[in-house]
Write a structure and sequence with these properties.
Layout: H1 5-10, E1 17-19, H2 23-33, E2 39-41, H3 46-50, H4 57-60, H5 63-74, E3 91-96, E4 100-106, H6 116-128
Length: about 130
C-alpha cells in the first residue's frame, strides 16, 4: 500500500494497518518498513475474527503461498522475522463513514493481496456515489 499512499490520501482517505503483534513489535516494524500511516495492534485477534479473516497452518504453508513468495522476491521484497501470530491471514477493506464497507478482500493464503487498482476504484466510487 505504500506505493499508493499519496493516491489514497488525494481521494480523502487514509490507510490504517492492524497487526497481530505487540506494540513493541509494531514499533520495530514501523521503523524497519518506514511506514507513514497509522499502525494499530490486536494481539488477541478480535478485529481479525470480527472481520471474518482466516487463520491456519494450511493457509500459510501451501503451493500458492510459495508462488506468492517468489513473486514478492522478484519485486524486491524480503520476508523479515515473523512478528505476531504467524498463522493469521489478513485482509483489505475500504470502509466509509457510517461503517459502510465499500470493498472487502479476505486473503485466502499468505501473499494473497488485492490489486491496488481495485482499492482505488472503490474510493472513486465512494466519491461519486
Amino acid at each position: 500500500m505504500r506505493g499508493v499512499t499519496d493516491e489514497v490520501r488525494r481521494r480523502g482517505a487514509e490507510i490504517l494497518v492492524v497487526g497481530s503483534g505487540r506494540p513493541d513489535q509494531a514499533a520495530r516494524f514501523r521503523e524497519e518498513q518506514n511506514i507513514g500511516f497509522p499502525l494499530l495492534v490486536d494481539p488477541q485477534l478480535e478485529a481479525y475474527r470480527a472481520a471474518g479473516l482466516r487463520r491456519g497452518v494450511r493457509r500459510i504453508a501451501n503451493l500458492r503461498t510459495l508462488a506468492h513468495s517468489f513473486r514478492a522476491m522478484r519485486k524486491g521484497f524480503r520476508q523479515k522475522r515473523t512478528q505476531g501470530d504467524p498463522w493469521q491471514l489478513g485482509g483489505t477493506f475500504v470502509i466509509a463513514p457510517g461503517a459502510r464497507v465499500l470493498f472487502r478482500h479476505v486473503s485466502r493464503e499468505a501473499g494473497d493481496h488485492p490489486d491496488t487498482r481495485e482499492i482505488l476504484d472503490a474510493l472513486d466510487r465512494a466519491a461519486h456515489g
